[in-house]
Amino acid sequence: MRHREVGELMTREVVTVPRGATFKDIVRTLGEQRVSAVAVTDDDGHPLGVISESDLLPKTADQGDWFSSLPHPDPWESDKATGTRAEELMSAPAVCARPDWTVAEAARLMESQQVKRLLVVDDADLLVGIVTRGDLLRIFLRDDDAIRHEITADVLGGTLHLEPTAVSVEVVDGQVTLHGAVRFRSLVPVVERLCRTVDGVVRVTEHLAWETDDTGTGR
User: Fold this and answer.
1) By residue range, what is the domain housing residue 57?
2) Of 89, 123, 139, which residue sits at a domain end?
3) How many CB atoms lie within 10 A of CB 112?
4) How many domains does the chain have?
5) Nearest CA among 100, 120, 114 for reference residue 4
6) Within this chain, do residues 43 and 79 fall inside the same structural domain, yes or no?
7) Same domain, 32 and 105
8) Residue 130 φ then ψ, to 5°
9) Which Pfam family, just one, is annotated for this protein (predicted)?
């Protein structure tokens, strides 16, 4: 099976600002480029951090007497409210991925770090792209026929070496339904698990019989 890589989904033209960019320069860049975040890089193109619209909001929230009635912000929000340059406003260090990472690897890092985007760097740690949660979700737009072909040819045939007529595959809106029979009962969860790992699969429902119960659990 071939999993889609970050390099296939990322945006290669990344909007960047230098570490010394002023608050107004950053806001202007976000507006002119119509993006919700920019990468902060050093002079050599290495990523230092990310500035998103949420990083800039503490500055707005710090203005006006009305906000004094609200709960006190966390210390990091207070620091950003007083920051004036990119290096003071950015979320750092930058959370980065590699172009050859799979979608699953990138998604796990986003989840663990609780970020909405990853900067993508090459072997020299130079910025080469950016990938967002929306980019990763694009795999679920794969054509149903492409998903069915990959399951039939790569999973059932290439990996499990099943006979072409052993299991039939139906895919509708990314939802996979399997009918047929396999030789051993222990193979059923393996088939289901491998099908779930195919890019674009939303759900797998199996209606598989077996010839031999090798699990010792009975029916």
Assistant:
1) 6-139
2) 139
3) 9
4) 2
5) 100
6) yes
7) yes
8) -145, 140
9) CBS
d(CA 168, CA 165): 7
- CB environment 188-199: b (16+ within 10 A), e (fewer): beebeebbeebb
Question: Each residue of 74-103: pLDDT tens digit?
Answer: 554 555 557 789 999 999 999 999 999 999
- What tokens appear for 34 in the block? 């119509």
21 lies in the same domain as 89: yes
What pLDDT digit, counting tens, does each position of 121-159 carry?
999 999 999 999 999 999 999 999 999 999 999 999 999
Report pTM.
0.76
101, part of any domain: yes
Give yes or no for a contact between 101 and 3, defined as CB atoms under 8 angstroms apart.
no
Residue 175 belongs to some domain of the structure: yes
